[in-house]
Design brief:
This protein is mostly helical. The chain is built from 11 helices and no strands.
């Protein structure tokens, strides 16, 4: 990749964020509205707000709960999705139940989960799992159902062992769909992380933002919102790096199909 193409890619990547930040800066530069403080005031309080104790007391526990719930949802979604996608009778049996539970918004489960799991980390992780599992599960089912029948018949003719068939045919063939579901689940997980910390919590980014709002610390409240955006961006970049390495065979296949 040439230097020019890298510079062009970086320009396209940063152009819109730079324009939005500049627009926010100039729009609020002389603001006297208490709830809409100047951006330079918000940025001036960012470091003192989050890097003097709150990073370890609030940010890291939030990220740990998010990752725990997200990976549990991945394991649960992929496991159930492979089983449901592979067995037609199981899909017919569970489809009405899955459609029912999928239609229930995860935030309304918070009061119920508080009754059974208390108000500790377990409840917050369960809330994240309850929302993240659906895109992973449904995409895995569709990925398994869409496997190439020629490959499936070939594996059957060569009498591949169940373990090899699962790893090299089912999971590998469904991995693009699984990755699409995992990408959707990541953004849902961040939303549910914040919502779960707004109920009966004593730490976390969501809890701290609510405390700032109730004490009318408006610049600090805005720093929390910016921090959530930064956390989402960092996790998205990490996800894209892992996805590009795991699905390099798929992107290469698509590129060769486009060029042929």
């Amino acid at each position: 990749m040439s230097v020019l193409s890298v510079a062009r890619k970086m320009l396209l990547l940063l152009a819109v964020p730079v324009v939005l930040i500049a627009a926010w800066w100039f729009a609020t530069a002389h603001s006297t509205n208490f709830f809409w403080p100047p951006l330079h005031d918000i940025l001036a309080t960012f470091g003192d707000t989050w890097f003097h104790g709150r990073f370890t007391a609030d940010v890291l526990p939030s990220v740990a709960r998010l990752l725990a719930g997200y990976f549990l949802a991945l394991i649960l979604g992929v496991g159930l999705g492979v089983a449901i996608g592979s067995l037609r009778w199981l899909r017919a049996l569970l489809e009405p139940v899955l459609e029912f539970f999928r239609a229930i918004p995860s935030p309304v489960l918070v009061p119920i989960l508080m009754l059974f799991a208390g108000i500790g980390d377990g409840m917050k992780i369960l809330v994240i799992v309850s929302g993240c599992v659906w895109p992973v599960l449904l995409n895995t089912v569709e990925g398994v159902r869409g496997l190439d029948e020629v490959l499936t018949d070939t594996a059957r003719c060569y009498r591949m062992r169940p373990h090899s068939r699962l790893i090299h045919l089912v999971l590998r063939g469904a991995s693009p769909q699984i990755a699409a579901g995992a990408r959707q689940a990541l953004s849902i997980g961040i939303i549910l992380m914040v919502i779960s910390e707004m109920f009966a919590a004593n730490s976390g980014v969501g809890f701290t933002i609510v405390q700032f709002q109730r004490s009318f610390s408006i610049p600090q409240m805005w720093t929390g919102i910016i921090l959530l955006g930064l956390i989402g961006n960092v996790l998205s970049i990490i996800f894209q790096i892992v996805e590009s390495r795991a699905l390099s065979w798929y992107t290469g296949l698509r590129r060769s199909q486009r060029e042929s």
